């Protein structure tokens, strides 16, 4: 690789992308930073401080309009339909990585990079270190995006990245990790939806037979598998087992019905194409838990038969398929 090879790095103002920038410089890349501006909390100022410290140019791109159209609006609509979407998974291919690739094309750069904890090799995407793997969040990247992607933190754990940041003296070395969605910094999903002018009505909590157990505060406040924050006492532990938007009902149960050994995922994105049934480990949420399954491609979706029952695969979340450490793709649970 020529030492002048250009690369576009998503520079967020956090410690991960800052260390990624430094590691890319050490590998001989000409790093160009890009801050994707969604408004808010001073992250742009931190990104500029990192860029100045490392001597790299920084371009700021306002993505609020794209984010609203491709992520915020579908996110709110999904909750109103009783689903629980993952906005980062929605955003990555359609907004974030799309913007990085477009800017790379403008500058004549072959590669893009981020501070995600995952690995790429030969156009394929793999898990990062087990303690902080983030590959699940990338399950909807297109093969073309993956082919251009460099992930410098893939072989590192979070503690090592923090230590590198301190050793380098990066201005964001002590900055805490962001745990919230960028466009909902207070973490109040229901409030975000209501501030958009939509306030779903109250309705009934019911059991599986339809018996009324109490009143809920709007279906957008609940998700399948939820136990805490229900605001109802029925004399036993209960969980949300189903959301019925047409009837405006939230179904509660003792949790046994949350276990299932079969789901269907729609709108599957294949990073590594599969057309025949294959064995895989499947994640149904962003956690370390994965379950062996047979995945059968079907039209634009996939039928997933687990070898052991999984708990509360939630409509709207993503099912991601792994063969060994390789991420094959993923689709939306229905």
User: How much beta, percentage-wise?
Assistant: 25-35%
Q: Cα-atom Rg, whole angstroms?
A: 21 Å
Largest sheet: 6 strands, antiparallel, barrel
How much helical structure, as a percent, in the residues? Answer: 25-40%
Average pLDDT works out at 95
Pairing-aware structural class of the strands and helices? alpha/beta
Structural write-up:
The protein is α/β, with parallel strands linked by helices. It contains seven helices and 17 strands. It has a six-stranded antiparallel beta barrel. A five-stranded parallel β-sheet has the order 3-2-1-4-7, with helices on both faces. β1 (6-10), α1 (15-26) and β2 (30-37) form a beta-alpha-beta unit. The longest helix is centred in the N-terminal third of the chain and has 21 residues, at 87-107. The N and C termini lie far apart (44 Å).
């Amino acid at each position: 690789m020529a030492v002048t090879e250009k690369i576009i790095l998503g520079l967020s103002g956090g410690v991960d992308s800052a260390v990624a920038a430094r590691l890319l410089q050490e590998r001989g890349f000409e790093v160009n930073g890009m801050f994707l501006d969604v408004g808010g909390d001073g992250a742009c100022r931190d990104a500029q401080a990192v860029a100045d410290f490392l001597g790299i140019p920084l371009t700021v791109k306002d993505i609020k309009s794209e984010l609203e159209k491709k992520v915020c609006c579908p996110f709110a609509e999904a909750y109103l339909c009783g689903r629980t979407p993952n906005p980062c998974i929605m955003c990555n291919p359609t907004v974030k990585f799309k913007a990085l690739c477009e800017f790379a094309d403008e500058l004549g750069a072959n590669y893009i990079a981020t501070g995600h904890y995952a690995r790429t090799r030969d156009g394929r995407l793999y898990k990062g270190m087990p303690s902080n793997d983030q590959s699940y969040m990338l399950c909807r990247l297109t093969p073309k995006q993956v082919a251009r992607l460099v992930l410098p933190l893939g072989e590192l754990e979070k503690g090592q990245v923090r230590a590198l940041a301190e050793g380098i003296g990066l201005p964001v070395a002590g900055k805490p990790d962001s745990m919230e969605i960028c466009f909902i910094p207070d973490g109040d999903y229901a409030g975000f939806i209501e501030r958009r002018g939509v306030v779903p009505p109250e309705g009934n909590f019911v059991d599986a037979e339809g018996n009324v157990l109490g009143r809920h505060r709007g279906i957008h406040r609940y998700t399948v598998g939820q136990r805490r924050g229900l605001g109802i006492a029925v004399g036993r532990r209960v969980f949300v087992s189903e959301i019925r938007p047409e009837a405006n009902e939230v179904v509660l149960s003792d949790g046994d019905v949350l276990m299932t050994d079969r789901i269907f995922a729609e709108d599957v994105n294949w990073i590594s194409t599969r057309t025949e049934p294959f064995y895989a480990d499947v994640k149904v949420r962003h956690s370390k838990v994965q379950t062996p399954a047979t995945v059968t491609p079907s039209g634009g979706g996939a039928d997933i038969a687990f070898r052991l029952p999984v708990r509360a695969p939630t409509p709207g979340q993503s099912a991601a398929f792994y063969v060994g450490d390789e991420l094959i793709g993923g689709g939306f649970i229905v």
